[in-house]
Amino acid sequence: MNTNPGIIGRKLGMTQLVAADGTVTPCTVIEARAIVVAKRTQEKDGYDALVLGLGDVSEKHVNRPVGGLFKKNQVTPKRHLRELRCSAEYAAKFELGQELALDELFEVGQFVDVQATSKGRGFTGVMRRHNFKGAVRSHGAHEYKRHGGSIGSNMTPGRVFKGKRMAGQSGNETVSVLNQKVAGVIAEDGLILVRGGTPGARGAIVTVRGAVKKKNGGRVASA
Predict the structure, then answer these.
(1) Is residue 28 in a domain?
(2) The pTM is what?
(3) CB atoms < 10 A from the CB of 60, how many?
(4) Are the CB atoms for 207 and 200 separated by under 8 Å?
(5) Spatial distance between the Cα atoms of 113 and 116, rounded to a whole number of angstroms
(6) Do residues 216 and 112 both lie within one domain?
(7) Residues 80-136: tens digit of each pLDDT
């Protein structure tokens, strides 16, 4: 489980960074102005975590249990909430209602893991969903160009195996992309620039955390 420092934000889109030598780097722009709305503790909940909130919302649009949490902790209601597991020592550094400073969480060159809900593509065929090659398109082929072909045998086993790759719902699922580099941090504007593309459409809620498969949370060696 990833317990490295992180934050939640909103994907704004993509841009380019042009270096002095003319090198162009594609980057995803993420606006991250999350605040701490609650904490989870080992004594009460059995684990330690920070509950982050993003995007203001009217009190009438939250249910009573969640609204009571906001009132108890004296924070403004937030539309999106996410729990980020962490150590008790790290959680103790933050106060309720405090906004997380991006320049203290990330640095340029650091490796991060980005998680979001991918774009929903509806009901799609096997070529788009599973990258099938498709049937032959030679002379005589008839209406099977984008079909998946056989899905099983006749008498034995007499059924279709579970997990058979077929047409169906594509996208709209949680996707994590590991070991992406931080290309820039603009703390005063609440922006993180992540090299390359990230899952989700514009406006999607994105979770950015230090890379779990890198030492020291993916931070650069000089840090």
Answers:
(1) yes
(2) 0.86
(3) 7
(4) no
(5) 10
(6) yes
(7) 999 999 999 999 999 999 999 999 999 999 999 999 999 999 999 999 999 999 988
